[in-house]
Amino acid sequence: MPATTLSPQVLAKYEPVIGLEVHVQLLTATKAFCGCRNHFGSEPNTNICPVCLGLPGALPVLNSKAVAFATLASLALNCEVRERSIFARKNYFYPDLPKGYQISQFDKPLAEHGWIDVPAADGKTKRIGITRLHMEEDAGKSIHDGLADSATRTNLDLNRCGTPLAEIVSDPDVRTPDEAFEYLTRLKEILLYCGVSDCNMEEGSLRCDANVSVRLKGAPEFGAKVEVKNVNSFRFIRAALEYEIERQIEVLESGGRNVQETRLWNADEGRTYLMRSKEQAHDYRYFPEPDLPPLVLTREYIQRKRAELPELPEARRARMIAEYELAQQDAFTLTAEREFADRFEAAARTARNPRRVANLLLSELGGRLKALGLEQEQSPVSMAGVVQAADLLDEGKISSRQLKQLFDVCFERGEDFAAVYEREKPRQITNTGAIEALIDEVITANPKQVEQYRGGKKTLAAFFVGQVMKATKGQANPALLNELVVKKLDG
Ligand SMILES: [Zn+2]
């Protein structure tokens, strides 16, 4: 059923209600309840032991690093951290869950009542509530394809069993697929800044399920919610939600009724498919985990974790916009990754003009990288190279045209700026007499512009500078040239 036939008027009658559940693997060296290595990509079934396999008599011991990471994430997401939380067994059978239950948290999760601010359509920000963040363990993996015997068997890799997870559940505050995208983007950014997860979606360290329902605008009750599972990129989540909202509205418009069910997103076809209906839904029979005591965190511990929080992306952007006079979008580019933002700021602080470093990074370097489809870390010009170029420009030792040429050489040869500059150091005309002679020629050749300048149109100085630069193939010392042009014109 193509869900694109609805008119804007029909769509406008309805309001989508969206909630997001994110599972994020914590970046601990070992698993949540045993000493097995927590590592993606190991040989199947090599990082396992009696505890994470749930063999009889094996007892779990909580990994304190997992608690530290989950607490940091909770605080970064503005949650209240509970001083006493309870682990619970979530019982279900699945081949990749040999214990027959997952250790999770149920009615007393680690943290609650947080929020993330996202940009809203009206240009303001909108606060999306976070219901809870709780700790749990991951299950193993069923491998249905890619192996020699995949046609006849499903293989199991239990390495992932017991990997520590934080599950982050939003309030049903999200109203559009775009808000969902923004929420997830910011959530991921915050988690990366805190260093608690690598958030690698391809490797499954960050996974997202979305709950979506639609109701007539102003209706007091929610519609039946559909859970969309197995979506492995934020762009796909947005597309899946767009599809689902229209599909559900179409059902209502044709006199039907939506039912609570779980659906899968098929990215190739751009649509969702029914996976299971509510009738087949699980009853997990939660009860407190008898093998683990309550998790008790002192107020001092929580305070210490709060003090460990780094400057978070939103705050950093606001500061950098003020400090480097950046546009909002440029601030996003520079802060997208904490490691890059750190390198930029460390370098910019050594430069004569930090703002110029930001500008060069965004324009000259960013433009070339984008054109070649390269990532920042693949740039031939290092951060130190950008600083050197910015300083030379600032001191008037090279013109912006020369800088462009030097950057071109860097990219052609894959060399850093320092090496290229040392070898191809542009010859500069710094001889006052020579420059003055050229300025005189330009003045003689352009009497009309001279008249306009002297009549008050001072911005025309740039025209004369440009003409002399052209005549010298960009080799006139820019600072000296600027000075002499104004002197001649005013003289
Ligand atoms: Zn283990």
What does this structure look like?
- 41% of the residues lie in helices and 19% in strands.
- It is built from 17 helices and 16 strands.
- A hairpin with a 4-residue loop joins β13 (261-266) and β14 (271-277).
- The model has no long low-confidence stretch (mean pLDDT 91).
- Bound molecules: zinc ion.
Nutshell version of this structure?
With 491 residues, the chain is α+β, with helices and mostly antiparallel strands. The chain is 41% helix and 19% strand.
The mean pLDDT is 91
Rg calc? 30 Å
Please list the strands of the largest sheet in the order they lie side by side.
Answer: 2-6-7-10-1-11-12-13-14
Poorly predicted sequence stretches spanning 5 or more consecutive residues = none
Which cofactors or ions or other ligands sit in this model? zinc ion
Per the principal axes of the C-alpha atoms, what is the gross shape? elongated
**What is the percent of helical residues?**
40-55%
**Separation of termini?**
77 Å
Largest sheet: 9 strands, mixed
By DSSP, the count of extended strands is: 16
Approximate strand percentage: 15-25%
Structural class: alpha+beta
Work out the helix count. 17
Task: Fill in the keyword field for this structure.
single chain; 491 residues; alpha+beta; 9-stranded mixed β-sheet; 3-stranded antiparallel β-sheet; 17 helices
Question: What is the strand and helix layout of this fold?
Answer:
Layout: H1 8-12, E1 14-25, H2 50-53, H3 64-76, E2 80-81, E3 84-85, E4 87-91, E5 101-105, E6 111-119, E7 125-137, E8 141-143, E9 155-157, E10 164-170, H4 177-194, E11 206-216, E12 226-231, H5 234-253, E13 261-266, E14 271-277, E15 287-288, E16 295-296, H6 299-308, H7 313-324, H8 328-335, H9 338-348, H10 354-372, H11 383-394, H12 400-413, H13 417-424, H14 432-445, H15 447-454, H16 461-471, H17 478-490
Parallel strand pairs: 12-13
Antiparallel strand pairs: 1-10, 1-11, 2-6, 3-16, 4-5, 4-15, 6-7, 7-10, 8-9, 11-12, 13-14
Helix pairs in contact: 3-6, 4-5, 7-8, 9-10, 10-11, 12-13, 14-16, 14-17, 16-17
Bound molecules: zinc ion (ZN).
Zinc ion (ZN) binds next to helix 2.
